Amino acid sequence: MSAAALTAAVSVPVAVGTPAGAAARPSWALKDTGTDARFRGLAAVGRTTAWLAGSAGTVLRTADGGRSWQNVSPPGAAAEALEFRDVEAFDGRRAVVLAIGEGEASRVLRTEDGGATWAEAFRNTDARAFYDCMAFFDHRNGLAVSDPVDGKFRILSTADGGRSWQVLPDAGMPEALPGEAGFAASGQCLVTAGPRDVWLATGGGATGRVLHSADRGRTWRAATTTVPAGEGAKGVFGLAFRDRGYGAARGLAVGGDYRKDQASPLAASVTADGGRSWSAASVPPAAYRSGVAWLPYGSYAPTGSYGSYGPLGKDAALAVGPTGTDITHDAGRTWQSFDAGSFDTVDCAGPGACWAAGEKGRAARLE
């Protein structure tokens, strides 16, 4: 894809409904990354700073709003063809990346100097494990999740910002369903909200489930969503929950069937009780979606003031996938498409700081 095409608008956005008749027209402004890597890992730090992690061992960082990208890939990662599927960043200098795959292909690396140097913090030595996603509660405490080992999802924990990791006991983890696993599609199969709550999205089993822990991954409770599963390509791919101070009980689940020739008529589910029960979106996205994110309060407020809900509303969120982006203004009950460009993941760090990334080096910021 040419630089000109990368920096052009993804498509002409159509008008979408907004609270009180406001005429907000969100659109993605593509940023030329200079690579054709597929980025399924994304960490939005702010409007100017974001991290990308993707195929062929590629890690990029911008500090100028996407005008330029610095290749900060770990040495040797490209030669080993590491598949980075998740990145969690604390700021512009400190970040943790997760490489996925069977056995020793699953690794965690950490940088404290903006990617100038990297240290390997974890390498999986169990051939049965396959790590999919990673999430942090704060700058010290975080988790990573593997597909089931001995019939249960395996949870890896850190309490020092990703410098060291330990496998948690699985006594509090429910049995996995036959064929059940996580999807390393957007870095959002494991998400946190607040200091202790974490949710895990699954697929491949008889039903698409979301597991919740209120004690940083030591005990879990499983709930069935309305997103279809039943096959290895179907289930819940991405989750988003709010911080408790902003209504953490509300959560969004997106997914479907990632195969291009298969329809996904029930690609979204919502919860209002922290994930104990789920209901289908009355107007879901029209196709499979792999990533989802709440728009921060204050996004695109006419006055630019943080705390104003702005023309996109306090219950607005985005869902992305290979066939486009959808927006909701009513906490996930109804979704409308506003862009047809391909993205795999989306992340928001504050007002005006929503980013998306995907195939062929695509990266964009919401305007």
What does this structure look like?
The chain is mostly beta strands. The protein contains 1 helix and 28 strands. Strands 6, 7, 8, 9, 10, 11, 12 and 13 form an 8-stranded antiparallel sheet that branches. A 4-stranded antiparallel sheet has the order 1-28-27-26, with no helix packed on it. It is globular. It starts with a helix and ends with a strand. The model is unreliable at 1-23 and 300-310 (pLDDT under 50).
List the helices and strands and how they pair.
Elements: H1 3-7, E1 28-30, E2 39-44, E3 50-54, E4 59-62, E5 70-71, E6 83-89, E7 95-102, E8 107-111, E9 119-123, E10 130-136, E11 142-149, E12 152-158, E13 166-167, E14 190-193, E15 197-201, E16 209-213, E17 221-224, E18 234-241, E19 251-257, E20 268-271, E21 279-280, E22 291-294, E23 317-321, E24 324-328, E25 336-339, E26 345-348, E27 354-357, E28 363-366
Antiparallel strand pairs: 1-28, 2-3, 3-4, 4-5, 6-7, 7-8, 7-10, 8-9, 10-11, 11-12, 12-13, 14-15, 15-16, 16-17, 18-19, 19-20, 20-21, 22-23, 23-24, 24-25, 26-27, 27-28
